[in-house]
Every structure is written in structure tokens, then in C-alpha cells.
Design goal:
Order of helices and strands of chain B: EEHEHEHHHEEEEEHHEHHEHEHEEE
Distance between the termini of chain A: 35 Å
Strand content of chain B: 15-25%
Distance between the termini of chain B: 23 Å
Strand content of chain A: 5-15%
Strand order of the largest sheet of chain A: 1-2
Structural class of chain A: mainly alpha
Structural class of chain B: alpha/beta
Number of strands of chain A: 4
Strand order of the largest sheet of chain B: 10-9-11-12
Largest sheet of chain B: 4 strands, parallel
Oligomer: heterodimer
């Protein structure tokens, strides 16, 4: 799987409706095709988009704006105790958060400078041999490597789950692949509350089939783990699938259209569209 | 490109059919009944071979909205009876379905099928291996637990117990500790592979015995068993299992790419053979008129020798 991007544009719309546009997809494909003409035959399986706040400046194009970040103290605007964190990017989120914490520590005279840059990220405390893990769990080597890549040493907690309930070693999402134990783990420990949350944490449903083979099963697990009515799980699955279909629509070529037809047929056959799940 | 298939258009004695899905098969069947010689050009997988076993004459959701979706003060049971009987089908369609010998079409009502996603859906007809809940009102339905990825008997039973279309039939669903997998690899193999193992009569007998024991343990009168899409790849085996076990047994429906599609492909093969249709295994690239004759050009490299 290959990710191509990015584009950079002003956005003034509804923040819940941020999507890649077909113009952006065309621009990227044209650009990449100059070096890799095969891109035109590749099957697009999804797009994603987000909005980042930048430090405002009049004049320069979006691209030229600084990716720097700043903590703004609103005491000068008559709102003491209120701060804004503006700008930045994912690569610097930890540094930014530490700066904010330092500002607060100073304000409350705690006197302890930030130290989180010296502590390991969750799961980053020790290396885990992915191949050995895969052998122990009797899972695919790719599935093992994925678990370690995403969870680091916490992959061992998922292994513990499977030790308690061997059934959970089954693969829910075959494209990525994602194990049942991992889905249940992120629901229990990573605050996932919906199928879409599980997808964001595990990449479930983001592979070649677009969730056609795993979303419904994931909805069942979400309902079980959170004690929701089963129909709520089915409803979440359908709304996840519909949303993903919308993000794919801008990248559909004739080849993808056939896969899309298959995905729609699968969803309609098993869940139904407009039969009590989505109002 | 090579062109190997030709026919005359009007007043012809021979008919050429492109595509071997349900529509192409029905066309070949009708042409043979009209006494024509038929050649069918088909290249494997299409929508019909990927189907899940539900046969619809309208989107099932529309049928659903007329029954469970009725926003009335009626009880679930009353709502279930609000469902108008399906329109009768033209006689030739019914004859085609009978002749194919794969689908069950209950008289005067729509079948109620269970999907692996945990819903009860309506249809017009269904692959004979699928369990029709409408045929077993009031039953206790057992779902054998099996460590397979897409099969969670407990989750499925919980969902079905809350489904209005199942409640209207006074059905109760319960997961059951019954061994249905015989070999260790059956935790991982695909549904179609597991289904193919039930083409073996010895395996059917073994499964029927397990289900009979499970029903006896349940200790209630009317028991049925719902399993995953595992009951046969060459033909639906549910009836054989049910007869040996002495209770209704059937599959839940997998939306796309399950064994029901394989069973359609097998039934299609038998039907084409019975009808004496010449089958060309190739992908049609273009239809070109040559004076009186129509010529189908086949995609280069896609043809294999004709079979009869």
C-alpha cells in the first residue's frame, strides 16, 4: 500500500466534514504520474484529510505559512487563566505539550521542569521480538509485526488476553490484519467507543476491501465490550462504512467502481441500507 | 483478438448468450425451451457467483420497511403479520427456479434469513442451505460456538433475540457448546473451504450426530440449529444434515463471496449440461455485425476450448 500526498489548502467549511476533493486527487495523481506513470493503474482504496491550525499571517500562501507553534496567554486580552495552543504539527506535538505544561507549572509555582521528553512513549520501554510473538500466538508474521509496530511492548498485554481466551487470536480485519484481541484491547484501554474509533486506532477497515469484511463484526464486538444493544453495533458499522465510501468517492476510477459495487452489495446483503439502522 | 463465435440475428435457429450469471442462465434456459441451439460465452466470476444466497426481486430493505419498519402501535407479532404476501411471479420464472433446483421459494410469504452481521433480512427466495426462520416459528434456535473469525455465536444470538422479525415469530436464540469443527485447521480456513468439507457424506453424518446430541441436551421440544455458511460447496447439504439430525438446520448468510455463490456455479453447470448448451469459457470483448451475422470477438488469451 502506498500513501501519496499531501496537498495544502485553506479550509473554511464545517470541521466535521473535512474531506479530500477530486481536484486534489487529480492534482496528486498528475504530479506522481510524471515519475511513476503506473499510478494511473493503481487502485485507490481511500483518502483522508484533516485541518491544522497555523499561526495567522496576512499575505503568504497556505504553503508558506510557518509550521511553528505558540502558547498564547489571554491575560493581555482580559481573560487571565485562559491559554490557546496555536499551530504546530503532529511531529512536534510532544514538545508543544511539554511547553504548555511548563507554562502551567510556572503559573502554579510547581517548580518542576517538564520531564516527559525523558520518559518512553507508551509501549516504548522495551523492544519485543515480533516474529517470536507471531510464533507464540500462531498468527501470521505480518500480523505480529503490526502488533509490535503499533503497541510496542504493550503487544504483550494483547498476548496475555489471547492466553486467557485463545478464541481472540482470530483475525477480524484480514486486509490489515487486525486480531480480535486487539479490537477488544483498544475498547478496554484506549477509550475507543465506536467502530470509527477502533478503525483510527488499529487501521481496521482501511485496507483494500474498505471494511466490507470486518466492519459488521467490529460493530458486534463494540456492542459486546461496551454493553450496548447489538443493533447499536450494527448501526455504527453501517455509518462507518457509509463515511468511508464517501471518502473513496473522490478517487474512484473505472476499476475501483467495480470493487465499490461489490462492497455496496455486501453491505446491503448483510446490514441493509435504510432498514432501521440509519435514520 | 480471435473471433470464434458467430450467429445470425433474426429468425435464427441459434442464440448466443454473453455472460453466465443468473440473467444469462435464464436467457439460455428460455432459448433452449424455444428450441434454439444456444452458445453461452462466460468467463468465471461475476456478481451471481459472488452472491450470498438471498434471491431478491426488490431491495429487501423496502420489504422490511413494510413490515418491521411500520411505525404503528401494533405489537411485534401483529406487525409481522402486516407483511403482504409477495406478488406471484410469472409462470416461466417459477419454472426456471424449479428447474435450477437450488433455491427455495416459500408459498405466500417472504423468507426470513439471518445475516452474519446479526440481522434478520427478508428475501423472495433463498439458497436451500440457508435457514429460513419463517419456517420454524416458536423454535429454540441453537448456535454452536466455534472459534472462527466471523462466527461469534454469543454475539449473534444476542442480536437475533432483539430483532423484531425474529421476535414476531416467537423464536429464542442461544449459543451452544457443540463441536462443529472437526480438525484444528478449521479455525482458520475460509468459509468456502469449510463448506466444501461438508460435501463429504461422512462429514455430514458426523455433524448431524453432534447437532442431534446438542438438541437432546437442550431439553425442549422444538429445536433448530443455525450454523455459519459451511454446509456444502458443490450443493446445499442442509437438508441432508437436517434429515439425519431430525431437526431443522441451516446457514446464516454471508453477504458476498461465500459458498452460496459456489453452489450457484455448480447448479448452473448442471443446468447448462442438462440443457445441452455449448459453453465457451472466454471474455467477450465486442459484438460486431457482419452483414446478416453477428460476431462476438473474444478477448485475446481468455479462451479455453469449448465444452459441451
Amino acid at each position: 500500500m502506498t500513501v501519496i500526498g499531501t496537498t495544502d489548502d485553506d479550509f473554511y467549511g464545517d470541521l466535521d466534514e473535512v474531506r479530500a476533493t477530486s481536484e486534489e486527487v487529480r492534482y496528486l495523481v498528475q504530479g506522481v504520474a510524471r515519475i511513476f506513470p503506473q499510478i494511473r493503474e493503481a487502485r485507490a482504496i481511500g483518502t483522508y484529510a484533516g485541518v491544522r491550525p497555523t499561526l495567522y499571517k496576512y499575505g503568504p500562501t497556505e504553503d508558506a505559512l510557518s509550521r511553528d507553534h505558540r502558547v498564547i496567554d489571554h491575560a493581555a486580552h482580559g481573560a487571565p487563566g485562559m491559554y490557546s495552543m496555536v499551530g504546530g504539527k503532529l511531529a512536534s506535538y510532544r514538545l508543544f505539550a511539554e511547553e504548555m505544561v511548563d507554562v502551567l507549572a510556572h503559573r502554579f509555582q510547581l517548580g518542576t521542569p517538564g520531564y516527559s521528553h525523558r520518559s518512553a512513549l507508551p509501549g516504548g520501554d522495551k523492544p519485543v521480538d515480533a516474529l517470536q510473538l507471531a510464533l507464540r500466538l500462531e498468527i501470521d508474521a505480518v500480523a505480529g509485526r503490526r502488533l509490535v509496530y503499533r503497541h510496542g511492548s504493550r503487544a504483550l498485554r494483547i498476548e496475555e488476553r489471547i492466553g486467557r481466551n485463545p478464541r481472540e487470536a482470530v483475525t477480524v480485519c484480514p486486509c490489515e490484519p487486525v486480531l480480535e484481541a486487539e479490537v477488544r484491547y483498544v475498547l478496554e484501554h484506549e477509550l475507543a467507543r465506536t467502530v470509527a474509533d477502533v478503525s483510527r486506532r488499529t487501521r481496521l477497515g482501511l485496507g483494500a476491501c474498505g471494511g466490507m469484511r470486518c466492519a459488521a463484526r467490529c460493530g458486534q464486538i463494540v456492542a459486546q465490550e461496551l454493553g450496548l444493544p447489538p443493533v447499536e453495533g450494527a448501526r455504527q458499522s453501517l455509518s462507518f462504512l457509509l463515511k468511508q465510501a464517501r471518502t473513496r468517492a473522490v478517487a474512484l476510477g473505472p476499476e475501483q467502481a467495480r470493487q465499490e459495487g461489490l462492497a455496496i452489495a455486501a453491505v446491503r446483503a448483510e446490514l441493509g441500507v435504510g432498514a432501521g439502522l440509519v435514520r | 483478438m480471435t473471433s470464434i463465435v458467430e450467429t445470425r440475428p433474426r429468425g435464427a435457429r441459434s442464440v448466443l448468450v454473453i455472460g453466465g450469471g443468473v440473467a444469462g442462465l435464464a436467457a439460455a434456459w428460455a432459448a433452449r425451451r424455444a428450441g434454439k441451439a444456444v452458445t453461452l460465452v462466460d468467463r468465471g466470476a461475476g456478481a451471481s457467483v459472488l452472491g450470498g444466497g438471498a434471491v431478491d426481486d426488490e431491495p429487501w430493505e423496502r420489504r422490511w420497511r413494510r413490515t418491521a419498519g411500520v411505525p404503528s402501535g401494533e405489537s411485534a407479532l401483529a406487525r409481522a403479520h402486516l407483511e403482504p404476501p409477495p406478488d406471484p411471479l410469472p409462470a416461466d420464472v417459477e419454472a426456471f427456479v424449479r428447474d435450477l433446483g437450488l433455491w427455495v421459494m416459500p408459498e405466500g410469504r417472504a423468507p426470513r434469513l439471518v445475516t452474519l452481521a446479526g440481522r434478520v433480512r427478508l428475501a423472495r427466495a433463498h439458497d436451500a442451505a440457508l435457514l429460513d426462520l419463517g419456517a420454524i416459528p416458536g423454535a429454540r434456535v441453537l448456535l454452536p460456538r466455534a472459534p472462527r473469525a466471523a462466527w461469534d455465536a454469543d454475539a449473534l444470538a444476542a442480536a437475533l433475540n432483539e430483532d423484531p422479525l425474529a421476535q414476531a415469530l416467537s423464536l429464542r436464540f442461544a449459543a451452544s457448546d457443540t463441536a462443529v469443527l472437526r480438525h484444528d485447521d478449521e479455525r482458520r480456513i475460509g468459509d468456502a473451504d469449510l463448506a466444501a468439507r461438508h460435501d463429504d457424506p461422512a462429514r455430514v453424518a458426523w455433524l448431524a450426530e453432534r447437532l442431534r446430541e446438542a438438541a437432546a441436551r437442550a431439553g425442549v421440544d422444538r429445536v433448530a440449529v443455525l450454523v455459519g455458511p459451511w454446509l456444502g460447496a458443490a450443493a446445499p447439504r442442509a437438508a441432508e444434515v437436517a434429515e439425519r439430525a431430525g431437526l431443522p438446520v441451516g446457514e446464516a448468510l454471508l453477504g458476498v463471496g461465500g459458498p452460496a455463490g459456489l453452489r450457484f456455479a455448480a447448479a448452473r453447470g448442471h443446468m447448462l449440461q442438462r440443457l445441452g448448451v455449448e459453453v465457451v469459457r472466454a471474455r467477450a470483448a465486442a459484438v460486431v455485425r457482419h452483414g446478416e451475422r453477428m460476431r462476438v470477438e473474444l478477448e485475446a488469451g481468455s479462451a479455453s476450448p469449448p465444452t459441451r
